[in-house]
């Protein structure tokens, strides 16, 4: 699927993007609906803010500028934007309607598909977003165990149960909720054990992202499995980002550790809004109890179910994950080679996994800029300059990289050529001590992951 390279116009503007931001700022608190899509996450004045259309690995902003996509809409796009098999399945379903007074048969079909491909899935319940199913997982675990405390690590969404323990982002959450959420460190089994010691017989669940950017070390996932079994707690993997991305059966298949419950959303339907809680019959069965309540009008919309069926079927029939692993590894290795060649490897690197990695800059880079003192982060200034240069050249760099089945060798080569030029600018700016002067827009704000205290 070869396409021409993004054409970068010398009179590139972002006028329409900026006009939309002006209008939204009067109407929409925070301007965007999604934390990571807020204009402050980008170099305001240079970066686009609104995307009009996308196809395969490419995006076009509202001013007609074309980009190679690196971020896959924060994860939902696994096969590529507007992927034909998914678009056709949804279009066909639309002719028959999407919401009915009773369930559509696809509801059973997609549950059966999930049970076939996801190791922990003996029963399945659908919802719309990642938040819905992570929060449902906590409720199921509490109902199943009759305990209250949730031991957690990683980002699981905005609901109170997840943010209660985050002192930077707990506005609007009663203090008492925080008594039942306890955080631990990834790869630190003792930090999890301490929560069990502090709350004897009251920890309902260990809820964790199975993997972040770092590898699980020293059998960490196996140790979580053993600890949960020993203590009678429910082990929950939040696979909202890793599900269908690391493997068709998620990170639990990739790492060979099966949780009691797992949460899926993003890549499950290649961009259509559907999520699922999957898990063992024993734990999920509590939802059949008379006093357990969960209901959602839109949970079983047939268009999203059709998208999920098509997206999962493509993954079963084609080597989607092999392709993503190959293109991701080429990008990661290519970037790290460039950083080494330009003698920047001590301040920037691609880290993580080919299916999901991050390209970032160390916080303590000395740039000599006044903003460093105000902001405490030379890294953010350098990242802003790198982003500015990438966006101008047609690569929609955001930091996080989520390659898709539609990324071609040509996309990888183009992206690496652009990254080479961006790193050359960074290198010159660091040498001259004029990083801040070269930044033509605003410094990027803290990422959602930084604000929520995540390590990625
Ligand atoms: C691991 C993880 N869990 C939960 C969520 C929340 O999902 P959503 O934004 O679909 O509600 C996200 C979103 O980024 C996520 O990455």
UniProtKB/TrEMBL annotation:
List the Pfam families: Aminotran_3
Organism of this sequence = Natronoglomus mannanivorans
Entry cofactors: pyridoxal 5'-phosphate
What is catalyzed by this enzyme? (S)-4-amino-5-oxopentanoate = 5-aminolevulinate
Going by the entry's taxonomy, the superkingdom of the source organism is recorded as Archaea
Q: What is the lineage of its organism?
A: Archaea, Methanobacteriati, Methanobacteriota, Stenosarchaea group, Halobacteria
- What is the protein named? Glutamate-1-semialdehyde 2,1-aminomutase
The UniProt entry's sequence similarity note says: Belongs to the class-III pyridoxal-phosphate-dependent aminotransferase family.
Has keyword Lipoprotein? no
* Keyword entries, A-Z: Aminotransferase, Isomerase, Pyridoxal phosphate, Transferase
Q: Which pathway is this protein engaged in? A: Porphyrin-containing compound metabolism
Decide whether keyword Isomerase is in the record.
Answer: yes
Which GO terms label this protein's molecular function in UniProt? glutamate-1-semialdehyde 2,1-aminomutase activity; pyridoxal phosphate binding; transaminase activity
């Amino acid at each position: 699927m070869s396409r021409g390279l993004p054409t970068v116009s010398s009179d590139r503007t972002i006028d329409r993007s900026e006009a939309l931001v002006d209008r939204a700022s009067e109407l929409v608190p925070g301007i965007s609906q999604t934390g990571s899509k807020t204009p402050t996450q980008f170099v305001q004045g240079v970066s686009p803010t609104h995307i009009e259309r996308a196809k395969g690995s490419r995006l076009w902003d509202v001013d007609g500028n074309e980009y190679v996509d690196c971020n896959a809409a924060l994860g939902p796009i696994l096969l590529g934007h507007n992927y034909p098999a998914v678009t056709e399945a949804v279009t066909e379903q639309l002719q028959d309607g999407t919401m009915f007074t009773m369930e559509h048969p696809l509801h059973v079909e997609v549950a059966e598909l999930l049970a076939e491909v996801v190791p922990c899935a003996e029963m399945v319940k659908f919802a719309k977003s990642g938040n819905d199913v992570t929060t449902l997982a906590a409720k199921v675990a509490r109902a199943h165990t009759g305990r209250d405390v949730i031991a957690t690590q990683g980002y699981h969404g905005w609901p109170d149960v997840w943010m209660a323990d985050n002192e930077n982002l707990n506005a609007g959450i009663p203090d008492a909720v925080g008594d039942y959420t306890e955080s631990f460190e990834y790869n630190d089994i003792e930090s999890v054990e301490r929560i069990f010691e502090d709350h004897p017989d009251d920890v309902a669940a260990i809820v964790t992202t199975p993997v972040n950017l770092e590898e699980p070390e020293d059998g960490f996932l196996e140790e979580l499995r053993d600890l949960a079994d020993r203590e009678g707690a429910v082990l929950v993997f939040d696979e909202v980002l890793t599900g269908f991305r690391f493997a068709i059966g998620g990170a639990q298949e990739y790492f060979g550790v099966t949780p009691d419950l797992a949460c899926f959303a993003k890549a499950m339907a290649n961009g259509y809004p559907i999520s699922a809680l999957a898990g063992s019959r024993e734990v999920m069965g509590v939802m059949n109890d008379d006093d357990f309540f969960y209901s959602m009008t839109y949970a079983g919309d047939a268009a999203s179910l059709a998208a999920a069926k098509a997206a999962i079927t493509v993954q079963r029939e084609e080597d989607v994950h092999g392709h993503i692993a190959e293109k991701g590894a080429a990008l990661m290795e290519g970037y790290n080679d460039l950083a080494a060649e330009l003698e920047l490897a001590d301040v920037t690197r691609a880290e993580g996994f080919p299916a999901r990695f991050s390209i970032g800059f160390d916080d303590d880079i000395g740039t000599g800029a006044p903003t460093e003192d105000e902001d405490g982060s030379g890294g953010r200034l350098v990242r802003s300059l790198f982003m500015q240069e990438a966006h101008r050249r047609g690569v929609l760099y955001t930091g996080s990289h989520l390659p898709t089945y539609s990324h071609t060798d040509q996309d990888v080569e183009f992206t690496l050529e652009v990254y080479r030029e961006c790193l050359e600018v960074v290198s010159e700016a660091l040498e001259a001590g004029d990083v801040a002067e070269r930044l033509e827009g605003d410094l990027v704000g803290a990422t959602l992951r930084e604000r929520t205290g995540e390590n990625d």
